[in-house]
Specification:
Strand content: 15-25%
Radius of gyration: 21 Å
Number of helices: 15
CATH architecture of the largest domain: 3-Layer(aba) Sandwich
Number of strands: 16
Number of domains: 2
Oligomer: single chain
Structural class: alpha/beta
């Protein structure tokens, strides 16, 4: 067995539903059959704890003492990381998280290491200038960097700098971890939302492009359901009210069964993220897994690696509410085309994006790096 320590700033059950957390969970859940023994270390405002069980794997948390610019900091975390890394055969970092870089060098790690590069740093541009020397040194010191799509690897200035050590392993999901919703929940949501609607699922954050979705909903008057919570929630609700959008329903954050019910019932999945902070789009992949035609934006990220233009859905320019509205009208009015795209989306999920394919690829990379050391 190869012992692997995953290191990231948050994890389940502290932050339910997160994209990177979902990737780590899928990797950890599927590792055992490939001879991998995974553990996860993360920070928590709830204090430290060892040997917690999430799913079928062990997790540990260090006390988070401070949180600045999306970065959790911990006085005890470096000590905890050093102890757990000493027991591991390989350390799997999840980028971006500057504290992780500090821990890497502070503990003088001598183990094989790799980084899953989940996203460029987009919002904190001033802090990035200060962080860049440490970031470049950190990425230069690890054995391998993994990007989730060739689109993102080719369009990231950081990744092109380290292209000789970059591998591509697409994210994957396990369909069996999405149980079918009960008939009663399906009936409930059908009664609440009607027979046909567009669905967005995700955290309500600055890079999700939901302002443009509200403007498109204003133009089309088509029914749109927005599932999720976040910092932008109240601002978006205020805008929807100002626009008189009685065709937009905010359902908030929901549990897995209700989310699966909405994914089952929706007409199409709309994903208007417009900034490169959205490096992939796990919820977009969920839409594909459920066989839904998709609408996404072209910004050189993984969204258009999942959603192939005019095959699995429609692709529009970012920050263009009129183009988004036109795509929504097209899918709404041409149900035969939308149905064909949904079938193609499900096929592409099976061919490229299953959790089993992702885990198998990572397991082979772990074995390669451990053997090389």
């Amino acid at each position: 067995m190869i012992k692997v320590l995953h290191f990231f700033k948050t994890y389940y059950p502290e932050t339910p539903g997160g994209g990177i957390e979902q990737v780590i969970f899928q990797l950890a859940q599927g590792s055992a059959i490939h001879g991998i023994e995974p553990q996860v270390l993360y920070l928590s405002a709830n204090g430290s704890a060892r040997n917690q069980i999430v799913g079928n794997h062990v997790t540990h948390r260090s006390r988070q003492d401070l949180h600045i610019a999306s970065t959790g900091l911990s006085l005890s975390g470096i000590r905890d990381f050093k102890q757990l890394a000493a027991q591991a055969d390989l350390v799997h970092y999840h980028f971006p998280w500057p504290y992780m870089d500090v821990a890497h060098f502070a503990t003088r790690l001598k183990k094989p290491s790799l980084v899953s590069y989940h996203s460029d740093i987009v919002k904190q541009k001033t802090l990035l200038k200060l962080y860049s020397p440490l970031m470049n040194r950190f990425l230069g010191s690890v054995d391998r960097i993994v990007a989730s799509s060739p689109n993102y690897a080719a369009s990231s200035e950081v990744l092109t700098r380290f292209k000789d050590k970059v591998d591509i392993i697409p994210y994957g999901l396990d369909r069996t971890t999405y149980p079918a919703p009960s008939p009663s929940r399906l009936a409930h949501w059908k009664q609440q939302l009607g027979e046909r609607f567009f669905l967005f699922v995700g955290a309500l954050r600055y890079y999700k492009g939901l302002d443009f979705l509200l403007e498109a909903a204003h133009q089309t008057r088509l029914p749109v359901v927005i599932m999720g919570g976040g910092y932008e929630e109240q601002e978006l609700k205020t805008k929807a009210k100002a626009l008189g959008l009685n065709n937009v329903t905010f359902v908030g954050g929901l549990g897995d069964e209700d989310k699966n019910a909405l994914l089952t019932l929706c007409e199409a999945f709309v994903f208007p993220s417009h900034l490169r902070s959205e490096s992939f789009g796990i919820s977009l992949l969920e839409g594909a897994m459920y066989g839904k035609p998709m609408i996404s934006c072209e910004m050189g990220s993984g969204t258009t690696f999942i959603n192939i233009a005019n095959e699995t859905g429609l692709v529009v320019p970012p920050r263009d509410s009129s183009a988004l509205a036109a795509a929504m009208n097209t899918l709404w009015n041409d149900r035969a085309m939308a149905g064909r795209m949904g079938i193609k989306a499900a096929q592409r999920y099976e061919e490229v994006f299953t959790a089993e394919k992702m885990v198998r690829s990572y397991a082979a990379l772990y074995q390669e790096l451990v053997s090389a050391h």
